[in-house]
Amino acid sequence: MQRDIFTDEHDAFRDLCRTFLAKEVMPFHEQWEDDGQVSREVWKAAGAAGLLGMAVPESYGGGGVDDFRYNAILTEEISSAGASGIGFPLQNDVVAPYLLRLGTEEQKKRWLPGFCSGEIITAIAMTEPGTGSDLQGIATNARRDGDDWILNGSKTFITNGIMADLVIVVAKTDPEAKHQGFSLLVVERGMEGFERGRRLKKVGMKAQDTAELSFTDVRVPAANVLGQEGQGFIYLMQNLAQERLSIAVGSVAGAATALRQTLEYTKDRKAFGRPVSNFQNTRFELAEMDTEVTIAQVFVDRCIRQHVEGELSVPDAAKAKWWTSDLLKRVVDRCVQLHGGYGYMMEYPIAKAFVDSRVQAIYGGTNEIMKEIIGRSLIG
In sequence order, what are the beta bridge partners of 23? Predict the structure, then answer.
C-alpha cells in the first residue's frame, strides 16, 4: 500500500540516511557488536551529515525543521538496515524534546551545538534496579545545598550509558510531594561522584551500549536543572508519547524488513525439489504477515501525522507501541521458522533480528503498562 505522509524532501532525506548507513555504519557494525558499543566517530559523522538534531533551530547548530517525519525516516532506515547499535533515535526522539522545551537559553547555547555535531552524546536515566516501569517508585534523590543539588542513587538499563556525555537524571527532590516531587537534573561527564558501572551484556542489540550508572554525592549546579523543580514527572508523561511512537516506527520497519528478507529466502531456498515459497503453508504465512504489517503501517502513519499536527494522544501512542512491538516479535519468530535451521544461524540477518527484536516490548514502558494506560483512558 502506497504511503502518503512523505514529500519529495522527505524522500531525499531517506536517500541520505541510506547512503550514510551503508558507508559509515554497516561495514563496522559487526565489530561494534563485539566491542559492545559503536565508535564516537560515527556520532560525529552523523552530526556532519545532518542526522542529529533535525528539530533543533539552526542558531544552535541544528537542522531547523521541527517535523517528526524526518525522525521517523531515520528510525525506519536504521531498523531496516539492522543497525541496532545506532542510538541516534534516542538523541533525536527522546532527549531533544527535553532540551528544546525545557532548556533555558543558557542551557541551549551550552549543550545543543555539541548535541547536533555528535560531540555530545546523551542519555536519559529513569529506570532503577528496583522500579522497572514504575516511575513513581524512583528512589534516586537530590537535596538542595546552596546553589547546587547533591545527587545520590543508581540507575540501570541506560542506553548510551557508557558513552553519554550528558545524562538527564530523574530524581526525587521533595520526598513528601509524591508525583510532584521529581525533578530533572542534567549530569555531565566528569562530575565527581558520577560513575559508570558495568556495560550490561544483553541478549541482542549488542552494539548499543547499555549500562548501570551511580551517583554518590554528585554536586549538580542549579543551572543544570531542566524546567521547573518538582515538575519532572509531568515532563516525563508529556514526552513519553513521542518515545513510544518512535519504538512503533522502528518495530513496523523491522517487521517489514524481516518479511522482505524471508520472502526472498523462500523464493531461493528449495525443499523437496521446489522453492519453499511454492508450498501453500508458506504462502499463507507470508500472506498473513504481509497483511498485518500493512495494517500496522497504516495505523503508525496515522499516528505520525497526528503527532506532526500536535494531536497524538497518550493512549494512541501506547496502542501503537504495544501492538507493533508485539507484531514484530510474532513476525520475526514466524520468519525464523520459515528459514528452518538456517534461521537459527547468526550469519543470517533473521537470527540477529530475532534477538534484537525482543526488547521493544519491554523498553519505553512494558506492553503491560501500555495496556494499563489504554484501559484507564477507557474507564476514566
Answer: none
Judge contact between 7 and 73, C-beta under 8 A.
Answer: no
**Hey, what's the cell of 375?**
484501559
| DSSP-assigned letter for residue 298 | H
Strands of 120-181 (E only): list them: 122-125, 141-145, 148-159, 166-172
Task: Output DSSP code: residue 212.
Answer: E
Adjacent-strand bridge partners of 375 = none
C-alpha cell at 309: 499536527
Phi, psi at 323, each rounded to 5°: -70, -45
Dihedral of the alpha carbons of 214, 216, 221, 225, in degrees to the nearest 10: 40
Of the candidates 261, 286, 287, 224, the one whose C-alpha atom is nearest the C-alpha of residue 98 is 224
Strands 122-125 and 166-172: parallel
Beta 225-226 vs 270-271: how paired, if at all?
Answer: unpaired
Tell me the C-alpha distance between 74 and 286, whole Å.
26
Which residues are known to be catalytic? 243
Q: What's the distance, Cα to Cα, between the start and end of the chain in Å?
A: 36
What is the tally of helices (H) and strands (E) in the chain?
12, 10
pLDDT 10s digits, 318-357: 999 999 999 999 999 999 999 999 999 999 999 999 999 9
**What's 131's DSSP letter?**
T
Contact 189, 155 (CB under 8 A): no
Quick one: cell of 157? 538499563
Nearest to 292 by CA among 265, 258, 315, 318: 258
* pTM for this model (two decimals): 0.95
